[in-house]
Design goal:
heterodimer; A: alpha+beta; six-stranded mixed β-sheet; B: alpha+beta; Rieske Iron-sulfur Protein; 12 helices; 22 strands; 25% helix; globular; binds FE2/S2 (inorganic) cluster; binds fe (ii) ion
């Protein structure tokens, strides 16, 4: 999503539609309905999570991915954490609460395409431990609406972290 | 430096060579960690980074040498300095970012200015100093030894350190096969993934020197989901060519090859364009070592590991790991993905993505490793558990039977799923931890 291009904000009906979609989508993740969540991705989904290394303020920041999946690799990730027999990291499952806010939405390059930005805060409580993980990030999505509903064609989550404090990330945002 | 070890653990060995046991205290104690910093990390060669992270003069990255923060800086085209990242005036960090480029290091606290090789240029208040003030003794503290092995930058705080090539010894032959297999050498593809894990750093070193036994259970997820079933078959059916290799100083690696009947093409993912370059850069034996290798994992003592692994349908990815101790029960992990400089961008991108999909800050292998390493550390951190040592007993039947016909460097042991390499690492660790200082006049 390039800032230089004039983009027109969506009307209030579309804004509410997108907000509802994002809330419903994140609720699936918190309920660990991973396969239902995956069904909201397009077949050519690109799903990325990035972090950044600490550079002097005068340098331009360059982000790099810690997750960069297409449909096939995202499916493998989902299948692993959704099957109790195939995961140790998520069995017993992490208790999570994801907060989505700061939604901005624009019309995309063609009819039925939307660019949506949102903030996400993932609170993650590891079972049997008093410690909690927090992941905060800015999300940039490309959403597509057709006769079958809304799908995510592209998601980039830019985490506000240089070092993951709570071990490796087995969850989605 | 005089040591006054008064720890109860010093009264007995941590490692019971006869019975194949290792004290749990070694894997949780903060006192052991402090002693490790002095006796192991401040005396060994420690991996700090790769040439291609700091290609231009003035480029630097900030790392740790032992538990001391250091700046790794390119101060001249073929020179790297490793400088304590702490001002000689009152200790402030010269670099507070992870990486950057600079013409000099100016301390933000009171303004002392250093050249990029660490020499003190001015305090800013030189006119208040006595005339006999010797600036040549006031530069940033340099690591006395910095050496480069095919792009890999190592340093040591020990004035009396062996030359790096002697320290690496026989493991160098294997490292060379991965990091110097084309004339251009390897290239870091992205900044390192970094994460904190509440597990003892040695679990990482042991895992990579040769913990083949954890793969089928820890990694039940990826091995079941891999459509080609190559991982599962690979775990269960190591080829007869597979072996552990251990070398002096506590290094080692585990090479697993195809079992008969396994689909070769799944494993032979190195780009065809690169293979002639391997022939050019490596010996015939080294090329043959790489040929049809399924996975190589290894550890350079104490805390650098490497893996080249092919899982699923993707390209083989070469990865370096640093297990940076934070305490007895916590480490920070750094993880870099490499490809050949000569490779095309499409291939590099695929290697990078495939590399961290499996092994990275959100890797599908990594997430299960970390969950179980943390559980092992947490459950061992109490006096009751510490009455019961960890078992490395599958090393014992193989200790005296190295493969006499092994034609490559190092001592090889077959089969490739015993704890022989891990136990060797712990024996070398134990010897250093118990060695008298030598400089002690106690
Ligand atoms: S601490 Fe660096 S100038 Fe004072
Ligand atoms: Fe593992």
């Amino acid at each position: 999503m390039s800032e230089s291009v004039e983009r027109s904000p969506v009307n209030i009906d579309d804004y509410v539609m997108i907000q509802r979609f994002l809330y419903a989508e994140v609720a699936l993740l918190d309920r660990r309905a991973y396969q239902a969540w995956f069904a909201l991705m397009t077949h050519d989904i690109r799903y990325r999570v990035t972090t950044v290394s600490a550079r002097p303020a005068q340098d331009k920041t360059s982000r790099f991915a810690i997750i960069d999946e297409d449909a096939q690799t995202l499916k493998m990730r989902i299948d692993q954490i959704s099957d109790p027999n195939l995961t140790h990291a998520e069995n017993p499952p992490t208790l999570t609460q994801r907060l989505v806010s700061n939604v901005e939405a624009y019309y995309g390059e063609r009819n039925g395409v939307f660019e949506a930005a949102s903030s996400i805060l993932l609170y993650a409580s590891r079972p049997g431990s008093p410690e909690t993980g927090l992941y905060a990030g800015e999300r940039q999505d490309i959403l597509i609406r057709d006769s079958s509903g809304v799908r995510i064609a592209e998601r980039t989550v830019n985490l506000a972290q240089t070092i993951l404090r709570d071990s490796t990330l087995s969850l989605l945002l | 430096m005089t040591y006054h070890p008064r720890m109860k653990s010093d009264a007995t060995r941590w490692v019971d060579v006869e019975r194949g046991l290792v004290s749990r205290e070694a894997f949780v104690s903060d006192e052991v960690y402090q002693l490790e910093i002095e006796r192991i990390f401040n005396r060994s060669w420690i991996y700090l980074g790769h040439d291609t992270e700091i290609p231009n003069i003035g480029d630097y990255v900030v790392r740790n040498l032992g538990n001391a923060p250091v700046i790794v800086v390119r101060d001249a085209p073929d020179s790297t300095k490793v400088l304590l990242n702490s001002c000689r005036h009152r200790g402030a960090k010269l670099c507070r970012a992870d990486a950057g480029n600079t013409k000099n290091f100016v301390c933000p606290f009171h303004g002392w200015a250093y050249e990029i090789d660490g020499a003190l240029r001015t305090t800013g208040f030189d006119h208040h100093l006595r005339d006999d003030t010797d600036f040549s003794t006031m530069g940033l503290v340099p690591a006395p030894h910095v050496e480069n092995f095919y792009g890999l930058i190592f340093a040591s705080w020990d004035e009396d350190a062996l030359p790096l090539r002697d320290y690496l010894g026989d493991i160098g032959w294997y490292l060379e096969s991965f990091f110097n297999r084309t004339p251009g050498g390897m290239e870091v593809l992205a900044p390192p993934h970094r994460w904190r894990t509440k597990a003892n750093w040695k679990i990482g070193s042991l895992n990579f020197i040769g913990d083949s036994q954890h793969s089928p259970t820890t990694h039940i997820g990826p091995s079941t989901l891999d459509a080609a079933r190559s991982i599962r078959d690979g775990f269960r059916k190591h080829g007869q060519d597979s072996f552990h290799v251990v070398t002096d100083e506590g290094h080692g690696c585990t090479l697993t090859y195809l079992a008969p009947g396994m689909p070769e093409k799944n494993y032979d993912t190195h780009s065809d364009a690169l293979k002639p370059l391997y022939q050019e850069s490596l010996s015939e034996d080294q090329v043959s070592m790489l040929h049809h290798l399924r996975v190589c994992v290894g550890t350079v003592f104490p805390n650098m590991s490497f893996i080249e692994s092919q899982v699923g349908a993707g390209e083989k990815a070469l990865i370096i790991r640093l297990w940076q101790p934070v305490s007895g029960t916590e480490m920070e992990v750094l993880s870099w993905v490499f490809a050949e400089k000569e490779a095309d961008q499409v291939y590099k991108d695929r290697v990078l993505r495939n590399g961290f999909h499996n092994f990275g800050a959100a890797g599908v292998f990594e997430q299960d490793d970390m969950a179980l390493w943390e559980s092992a550390t947490a459950a061992s951190n109490n006096p009751i558990a510490q009455q019961y040592p960890y078992s490395f007993q599958t090393a014992l039947p193989y200790a005296d039977t190295p493969d006499e016909n092994h034609k490559w460097p190092g001592r090889a042991h077959r089969p490739a799923d015993t704890e022989i390499a891990q136990f060797w690492f712990m024996q070398c660790w134990d010897a250093l931890m118990r060695a008298n200082d030598g400089k002690s006049d106690e």
